[in-house]
Every structure is written in C-alpha cells, then in structure tokens.
Amino acid sequence: MALGGWIEGRFLRSKIARRVFAVVVTTALLPISLFALVTWISTSRQLERDAQARLRREAKQLGMGALERLLLLDAALAAPSVAPSDPFLTGKLRRLAIGIDPAGLELSPSERAQLASGAPLLRVVRGAPPRIELLRQRGPRELLRASVEPHYLFAADALRANAAVRVESEAGVLFEQTLGAEGETASESWEVFLRGAFGAPAWRFTIEEPRSAVLAPLAHFRISFALVALGGLLLVALSTSILVRRSLGPVEVLHAATQRLAQRDYAVRANLVGDDELAALGASFDAMAARIERHVGVMQRLNGVGIALSSEREIDHLLRSILEGAKYVTNAAVGAFYLLSDDDRLERRILSGADIANEETLQALAERALGASESQHERALETLSLPMRNHEGSFIGVLQLAGAAFSDADRAIAESLASQTATALTKDRLAREFRALFEGLIQLIVSAIDEKSPYTGQHCRRVPILTELIADAACATREGALKDFTLSEAERYELRIAALLHDCGKVTTPVHVQDKSTKLEAIVDRIELIDARFEILRRDALLAAGGSARSQASAAPEALLRELDADREFLRRANVGGEFMEAAAQERVREIAARWRFRDASGAERPLLDADEVENLTISRGTLNARERELINHHVVASIRMLEQLPYPRALRGVPAIAGAHHERMDGRGYPQGLVRNQISMQGRILGLADVFEALTAKDRPYKPGMRLGRVVSILREMSDEGHIDPDLLETFLREKVHLRYASEYLDPEQIDDELLDEAIALGFTPPVAGAI
Predict the structure, then answer these.
(1) How far apart are CA 325 and CA 304, in angstroms?
(2) Which of 289, 400, 460, 571 could lock onto 336 through a cystine, CB 3.0 to 4.6 A?
(3) What is the pLDDT of residues 82-93, one digit of tens each?
(4) How far apart are CA 700 and CA 456, in angstroms?
(5) Is the whole model's pTM more than 0.70, yes or no?
(6) Closest to 514 measured CA to CA, from 505, 506, 523
(7) 606 pairs with which residues across the strands?
C-alpha cells in the first residue's frame, strides 16, 4: 500500500495519467496474473499431497520398525539359554519371568492355542498405562513372560522433537509423545497387523506434526513465488508509471498545485522548467500564487494585530506586535512607536529596523508630526509619521514607518493601526489606574483593620506575604502530590486579593474581645477586683482574731492566711491564657468560688467569684469564652458577606470563597460552613495554612508570645494529622523551606532554633552580632 501510494503520488497525480496507466497495466499484466494464479494453485495442491504422503511413510516406518523389534526380541527369548542377565535384553525389557504356570494367567482359548502351537503371544494388559507382554511356551506347564520396554519398542529417542506420536491397540494407548506447542496440526496413521505372527490385534501408529512444519515447503514456495510475481508486476507498473510521468507530468504538477492553492496553501509554486506552453502556464500560475500569498499575509498580520489588541496584556509585547504588523503590510523597513511621558515629553518606546544614524532624524519627524492634525508623509525620506489620539482627542504618541514608497492604501491601513493602538494604550492606562485605585482601597481597609488592634497590627500584611510564598512553592515543586499544581497569573492575583481581605470582617468584632489578653479582661482586667475581695477576706480574718490589724496579723490563724494567699496566686495564674488548662485546675477554680464568701459595700454576703468569673477563669484554651469565641468566629461570616457585596470583575469572583475558607478544616470541623477537603479550593487551603502559621509565629498576640520555629513545625504536623490543614500542602511547605524563608526576614532571631539556624542563614537570614546593641 505504501509503495502503491508513492507511485500514485509521484507519477499518477492526474486522471489522465491514471487512465493511461490502467489501460497499459491491464493489457500487460492480466495474462501474466492468470498464469501465475494457475501455477500457484496447482503447485500448492501438489505440495500439500506430498506433505501428507510423507507423514504416511513415516507412520509406516515407525510401525514396521516396532514389528521388527518385536521379532528380534522374540527370537532372543526363544533361545533355550535366555536369562534376565542376557546383555541383549538390557534396556529392552522391564521384567522377565521364566517358569510361570500358565494356569495362573487369564488367557482366552485362542491365546492358549497360540501358545500351544509354539508361537509367541503378544498381549496388552489394561492399566494406566497398559502393559505390553510377550509370552512363549517353554514346557508343558511352563511359560516365559517378558514385559517389553515401550521406549525400546517404539524408538522414542529417535523421534523428531516437533512430532507427536501415538500407538493404540484395543486395550488403549500404548505410547504417546505430544507436541511441545499448540496450533493447527496434520496427521497420518498406519496399522501393523500382528494376528498371524503374535496372535494379537493390530496396532495403529499415528504421527502428528504442526501444519507449519508439514507445509514448510509450501510456505517457502508461496513466499518465493509471491516475491517473483510481485517483482514482475512492480517492474511492469514502474516502467508504465515512468512513461506516463514523462508524458503527463507537467499537467499533474499544475493540477496538484491548483488543489493546494484551493486548500489555502498559498506558498505553493509549480516551478515548471522548459520552453513549451505548459512551462509558460506554470510561470503564470506562480505569479498569481505569489500575489495571493502577499494579500493573505497582509490579512493574517492584520488579524494577528486584532487578536493581540484584545488578548495581549503586556503593553510592550502589544506595541511590538502592532509595529511588526504595520511594517509587513506597508513593506516598511523601519518602524517606531513614540509615546508621551507624564511630563509631556515624546520618548521612543519601540524601535525596529533603524540604524543609529537615522534615530535623530526619526525623532525630529515624530515630534513635528505630534502637533499636526493629519499624518505627515515625507517623500524624500520615505517616512510616514502618524499621530495617535485618545478618546478625548489628546495626543498620546506617534506611529512612524520608513523605508518604503507608501501608497494611499498603505497610509489608510497604518492610520487604522495607529488609531487602534491609541485605543489599546488608553484602555491599558485606565485599567492600570483602576487597578491601582482598587488596590489602594484594599490597602486602606487593611490598614484600618491593623490599626484597630495593637496586637494584630501586622497580621493582614504578613498573611499575603506568606500566601505568596506558599503558592510559589506549590507551583515550583516537582515532587510529591503537588508536582503538577499550577496557578495562572490571574489566579495568583485573585489569591493575593483574597489574602489581603481575608479578615476584613474583623471591623465588626468588638475591640475588647479581639484584644482580650487575659480571661477576666473586658474593659479592664477584673483580676484586680478579685484581689480586692481577697484583701477583704484577709481583713475579716484579722478582725475575727481581735485587736488592731497590726497586732492581729500574728494572732490570725496562719493556715487561713496561707490558704487565702495560695488561692489568690492560683487565680492570678489561671487568669493567664494558655494552650491547655487541665480539668483539675478548672475544678479548683469552682472550689475556690464555693469556699470563700465576702461582704460587699452594702453589707451583703456574696461568693468570692460570680458565675461569669468562674466561666472565664475555667476557659480551657486561650482567653476567650464560648460567647466571645463565637464573636471572633463571626468575623469570617462578616468577611464573606462584605466581600460578596463587591461587583468583582470575572477574574476576582472567587475572592469571597477563598477568603471565607481560611478557617475551614480538611475534616469538615472548621467554620463557618464546615467544608471538607475536596470542597475547599487549593487557594483556600494555601490561605488557611498561611493564616495558621502567621498566628503561631506572631509575637504581638495578647495571650501568648511568638513561638519558636521548631515548636511551630511540630504543631503544624499535629494539625495535619488531626485533619486541620492539608497534609500535601504542609509537606510541600516544609520541603521547599517556606517556613525558613519567611523566618529569615520576618521573625525575631530568638524564634529560630539553633538546629535550624544554618538553613536559615543559607536562605538569607543574618544573625545578630554578639554584643551588639
């Protein structure tokens, strides 16, 4: 098929050529093909018959060989002096018994008559496998009984490896050698009659071989015959093709070139050589194709410019694309863009194709064109300078082309490109100004949130930094579960905005809750009130002992005063938030509240601690009670609601969902929505990890100091095991050293563990000089 396709594509590209070729080939090859077919059929059949005849001969030879070995063996057994130790019998018999009583054998009358006549008896004893025995009468009541070895009898060692042999009698299969491989086989059989010589039924010898081996001569013939026949056919076809090609080649070339041109292959040329009419036709075709190619190239360049105007975000790339397109469509050798700077100076932004000697001239022409109302065409210099205006009619720059004789059509196209460029530049400037305004408003919100609390003044600024570091690491890693993770520039920007605004709902959180540094703090720390109550209890104890306070200090029960002091000191420690408060400590707070009572200013007796104070002092983690924790957690709901009100462009519509997921957990126990891992975007998981890490390392929290880096890593691993943060993201975070990169710039030196110091220094951390102030 490949050769036929090559011949048709190379020599027979026109219908005329194929028609001539078909007539010649049919006339020349039909008789040859018929003769070859008849020869093929007759020879194949003869070879098949020969193969079957060979198998029959081999089966006959196998059977006659077995009969001959039986006769030789019987002759040896008929000798009067035969004995089991006879060398001739070695390897031919399995067992030899002499002097057997015939009465002990189950023999038919015909078999007994055979033995009585002095002739040997060959019988097959049924079994698995059957046993071949040769019997001979040696006396009136004495028999010789020999068990014949099948491998000797059937010459198994001499058989071919690829042949299967089976010897059968009425008693079953006497010997069998199977094929070593599966597949279609051929077989032939031969029967050896043993009735006259041995008084036994006939044995059938069957030989079976794979058809591939039996018909190997036929296969060789078919291959060689096919090759010879195919070679003859190809020789005739090739000769005919060359003849047709020389006669009709130019027509085929023009036809093929026309088809390619119709299929928009505008670079096609016929390239016919000669001095006849067909060569002249080919030259005309080539000139037409060149003009079409030029026209299509101009259209493609203009389309490319149009696509760039709508899709290209990098302004320099856009200007270069427009400039190269303008040069191509006008055949200009030189092109340049000059843009007005903020101080109204005309500066060259892009230059293509100009040498240094011409730059000053081009600059002067551009400045002169800037003040003109129309494009300036300097014929002597073959330069076209096109001023560009924005939607307000103000000049913003000049498109300049040089080095060609510009036609009116060229000027019209260039002016259109200049106008479109002005629109793109104006759109880019407005987009940048809007983006700057948008980010400025975000920074204003972030500043307001940070200024609200002295304890979290840098949280909203550091979380975006951490978020970008983690996102960069996740995109850069080439191992682990995130090796194929990527973020587009738009997705990165969306994540950055979400990180900046993730805590915007904190503007609704009461300051006394957000800045609560101890468990009893509200507007003030109420531990001081409890201290005053202890002083009242001490005073009452002293008064109860009688006398003045000074003299009674020694008289009061020392044990009672020690208990008061111990309980007061314990409550002061309990007032400080921590990672965990044990149940025994919580129970002691309740016991203290129940044990001590004091009289207030009105004289009424009251318990030392009211229910609210007990509730706050028994907080197990941190400094916030359940109601206050709900208020803090509500900032996420408030953030989502606030962010959902903004009219985002399409690229930022995921900001509310990303920002609102930074307190969700992988196991679904987070808030506010209880999302599980596969419901949280990777951007949301990145922001969540950044928020946790910043909170653990921050040194400005009211309820704890900034943790050391080693402790933070341990906590993060525990949180990953508990289903709090994404384990794959944490693995990448640690493998890519994000914690050390952040620590080297934003954490205090004492927060970096000694064992991590070398790695931090390698990443840019500068440890403080010993003794420096």
Answers:
(1) 8
(2) 400
(3) 887 888 888 888
(4) 6
(5) no
(6) 506
(7) 598
